[in-house]
Amino acid sequence: MIAMKRRQFLQSTALLSVAALANTSELFARAPLVNKVGLGLFSIPKMLDENFEGAFAMLGKMGYKEVESFGPYEFSTEKAKSGWAAVTPQLGFKGSGFFNKTAEQFLNAASSNGISIPSMHTDLDTLQTKMGELAEAAHKIGAKYVVLPSVPDAERKTLDDYKRIAEKFNAIGAAAKKEGIKYAYHNHGYGLYKLDDGSMPLDIIFNQTDPGLVYFEMDVYWTVAGGADPVELFKKHKGRYKMMHIKDMKEKKRFSGDGGNATQWIALFPYMTSCGEGVLDLPNILTAARQNGVDHFFVEQDMVASPEIALKKSFDYIKGLK
Q1: What percent of the chain shows pLDDT beyond 90?
Q2: How far apart are CA 110 and CA 136, in angstroms?
Q3: Are 79 and 125 in contact (CB under 8 A)?
């Protein structure tokens, strides 16, 4: 009798364990591919200029949980500020950084709408000469990463230039680490063309930087426009990419040249579209990103028209991926 009861108990326990495992598997199957969808604020600069509080309220209502700011900031170098002032007439807005708010006010506008700020874009000059002030601002708003969005044209003309940039990145990464933050590089469309040996200039940066000091942020759109495969890059450099910018492409397009100048970038702006409305295999790309170490996923639709519609479409599409 005792043996019978013991056998029944073990059978019941086994069945319960199987049921629990089945329920867990079902739970994971239903879990969204991207838990927290973020937004690069370069998507809505005019709205932030004109209705700062309303812009964050709109994002919170849509369901966005993270944002990434862009410079220059009040503490940025004069070189960065003057460079920005030169291009703003063409852009049609002037705001950047914390949009004439203090770091505390900027954080409050985000956090009161359920949004965090894990990353800040800034410029090379500020990264090299004002890391202390940059880190202070990052700590105030809770940012973990300070990111270079692009390497200045003059500093990436040759392969030797890429080697020198890798050295600079290691130094910047070390300075950031000393301040308790992390440095990352956001790839634009250059450096993705194949060399005679099958490698890319971007490989120099990966191979000659310290993985403990230099992290990466992939821009899916510019990666494809430059002729590279996002999935291959995530797999090849597992653990190096920590963030990504997501947008879709109306039809598959490549740069007219090597992707090395703003004229080529601007020519492809009309082909940007909301996530899920283009030809990029975003489910496969985002799955590879998750599997290979990406933690932050930012929609970025540069200065998008009708953001209240376009950004909601992108959010809903990404949030719906399983």
Answers
A1: 77
A2: 18
A3: yes
